[in-house]
Design brief:
The protein has helices spanning 22-37, 50-64, 68-73, 79-83, 102-109, 116-137, 139-160, 175-188, 210-227, 234-259, and strands at residues 8-11, 193-198, 204-209. It is mainly alpha-helical and 260 residues long.
Length: 260
């Protein structure tokens, strides 16, 4: 799901010359390709149009998204549980997915987005902040960080929503993993200057330190959790961001001990 932001980050301070951020670009390309091939974008005629496509999109997200109740029970939702869910269109029936692996669905959910705006909101942040973190950590460690925090944030959200109505609704989007990248960036480059477009100032581009931009973003997510923002799993952002910062902090601490 898209990352709601206070400011629109455009470009961070340039990192030291190094290898191209191939993992960052590959994650963006794969997410875009999956959106183009799925029902959300509307280009694939196999999913129909109108109500038929809306129903296909809901089925698609339920099949490939991470459902908290499934993660905790380690079994797909039953036909009875699916029948109790509100549907995207009249006459839409959500079908059971007996072959679905709940644990694997966390991975697939990171690459499924509910429309191009959802994708663009997430990939903008990955494009801006991913290269710096990938350059510092290296490709393998960056990919591991991305996927591990995606899993951690999703399971953390599942535990928090275990007894809520949202426990049977699919969670899609890479925002938990990307929030981890933001947290790691804040720890690694707190004084980097980030160009932002500030809506209240007629979208004038201004440069602020990363600690201010990302700190305000985190505060906004935390406030949204307590205020119960609708339709967005803000808790995933909070968990992912904190985990990314702690992971980068632990990595820096280990590097410091090796150097002494």
């Amino acid at each position: 799901m898209a990352l709601p932001v206070l400011d629109r980050a455009v470009r961070p301070q340039a990192t030291a010359p190094g290898r191209a951020p191939q993992v960052t670009y590959a994650l963006i390309a794969l997410s875009a390709l999956i959106l183009l091939c799925g029902p959300s974008f509307g280009l694939n005629p196999a999913y129909g149009t109108g109500a038929a496509r809306a129903c296909a999109e809901q089925r698609y997200e339920q099949r490939w998204g991470a459902v908290p109740a499934e993660l905790l029970s380690r079994h797909p939702l039953t036909a009875e549980q699916l029948a109790a869910l509100p549907t995207a269109a009249d006459g839409c029936t959500l079908l059971p997915t007996p072959g679905k692996s709940p644990a694997l669905s966390v991975l697939t959910s990171l690459f499924v987005h509910a429309g191009w705006l959802h994708l663009l909101g997430n990939m903008l942040f990955l494009f801006v902040f991913g290269p710096g973190v990938e350059d510092r950590l290296g490709r393998a460690r960056f990919l591991l960080l991305y996927l591990a925090i995606g899993y951690l944030a999703t399971y953390g959200y599942a535990l928090a929503e275990a007894h809520s109505a949202d426990s049977v609704r699919a969670l899609v989007g890479a925002s938990g993993a990307i929030a981890g990248v933001l947290g790691a960036y804040l720890r690694l480059f707190p004084r980097a200057r980030v160009t932002t477009l500030v809506p209240v100032l007629l979208f004038l581009p201004l440069r602020f330190p990363a600690w201010l931009v990302l700190g305000l973003w985190f505060v906004l997510q935390w406030w949204s959790v307590s205020s119960g923002g609708s339709g967005v799993a803000y808790l995933v952002h909070v968990i992912g961001f904190a985990a990314g910062w702690l992971s980068a902090w632990a990595g820096c601490a280990r590097a410091g001990r090796r150097a002494t």
